[in-house]
Amino acid sequence: MAKACIGLDLGSSAVKLAELARARDGSWELVAFGIEPIPSDSIVDGTIMNQSAVVDAVRALYARLRLRRREVALAIAGHSVIIKKIAVAPMSPGELDARISVEAERHVPFAKDDVELDFQVLGTRTSDGQMEVLLVAAKKEVVRDFAAVAREAQLQPVVVDLVAFALQNAFEAAYETPPPGEAAVLINVGAHTSNIHIVSGGVPAFTRDINTGSAVLTEEIERLLNIGTAEAEALKLAVLGGRQGVGRAESTEAVARLSRQKAEEMAGEFAKSLDFFIASHPDTNVNRIYLAGGGARSPFLKEAVASRAHLEVEVMDPFRKMRIPEGSARVDRETVRSCGAQGAVAVGLALRQPGDKFS
Predict the structure, then answer these.
(1) Residue ranges of E strands in the chain
(2) How far apart are CA 221 and CA 224, in angstroms?
(3) Sheet harboring 6-10: ordered strands across?
């Protein structure tokens, strides 16, 4: 059996890393897990703006966890990525492979020479008998930049996935996959971008990236209290975590009010995408929403999303079926407990193997 990769999630506020190992009974064990913050605006809308800062964070994380394996899986997202479900006439895999670049010219708003293409036959048919295919296009420049970070950190990038698919991978390893006709909504709330991915019967049914995230709240706290980014972030996390005695009482109350307001606004943006999906898939029953990413730590967001969607909302725990070692220098159990949802994409990447395609 080929070894899985180390999952390296280069997020816009932090680098997250996960390494897994298969036990003899087939279950997964967490070998290493860590999070290293990066300066704000190092990665914006899925584009690396400050490569040296990201490389430094990766190196620091590797050194702290004392990792040896160099093969890593990365994930990209943002407006440089296009995911489309298309329908084509029934054909063999070889015929489809030759045909896909022609289909991409019809469906992808980028020049064909500027993108990496991949596809997966979904195994479903349209009402008129055509094959449904998931088409993925990613700008070569973005793929190249993410791979360059890994290489500069003396690592070997062997898989480049999409954030949405890595999220689905982590979800399906930890939860029951919804059967056809039932759907689970996965929302990865990052610092600047949130990824909505809806899964039905193990197949991606809807994917959208939204330009909103938890950093919006930090920026508003900075303006409201006239404080620096680090202090604003610390105060935000204290309020969201229910910790007392951090900052003045009036400041804490103001941040709590602002947190509720921003949570309502974000939930409204998520609801638009969910409403669109429900309207276009009337025969699919959406049964639950799972929140992942750093923004999932906000109890106000969980409450607001549940209220807007009229659905149960759960904070994703990608480690719920895994063995978590005790006394390991590479796994801090408290970090796993408190930041598990933030590591969902890294876990999904860690389930990949060298040579895997997108999706």
Answers:
(1) 6-10, 14-22, 28-37, 43-44, 47-48, 71-76, 81-88, 115-125, 131-139, 156-162, 182-189, 194-200, 203-210, 285-292, 312-315
(2) 5
(3) 28-37, 14-22, 6-10, 71-76, 156-162
Q: What is the DSSP letter of 228?
A: -
* pLDDT tens profile 148-166: 999 999 999 999 999 999 9
Q: Encoding tokens for residue 178?
A: 């919804």
Specify the pairing of strand 115-125 against strand 131-139.
antiparallel
Supply 347's token pair: 């876990």
The conformation of residue 316, written as its DSSP 8-state character, comes to: -
Residue reference for tokens 């022609």: 102
DSSP codes joined into one string, 92-131: -HHHHHHHHHHHHHHH-SS-GGGEEEEEEEEEEE-TTSPE
Enumerate residues 6+ apart whose C-beta is below 8 A from 331.
30, 31, 32, 33, 324, 325
**CA separation for the pair 37, 325 (Å, rounded):** 24
Contact (CB, 8 A) for 122 and 203: yes
Confidence grade of residue 173 (pLDDT, cut at 50, 70, 90)? very high
Please enumerate in sequence order all residues whose Cβ is within 8 A of that of 152, keeping only pairs 6 or more positions apart, or say none: 51, 55
* pTM over the 0.85 mark: yes
Average of per-residue pLDDT across 95-118: 91
Say which DSSP state 177 is in: P
313 or 358: which leads in pLDDT:
313
> In this predicted model, what pLDDT tens digit does every residue of 259-279 receive, in sequence order?
999 999 999 999 999 999 999
Question: How many angstroms separate the CA atoms of 327 and 307, rounded?
Answer: 40
Q: Which residues contact 292 (CB under 8 A, 6 or more apart)?
A: 167, 170, 186, 187, 188, 189, 315, 316, 318, 341, 342, 344, 345
- d(CA 257, CA 239) in angstroms, rounded, equals 10
Contact indicator for 191, 35 with CB cutoff of 8 Å: no
Q: Spell out the residues 6+ positions from residue 161 whose beta carbon is closer than 8 angstroms to its own.
A: 73, 74, 75, 76, 169, 348, 349, 352, 356, 358, 359
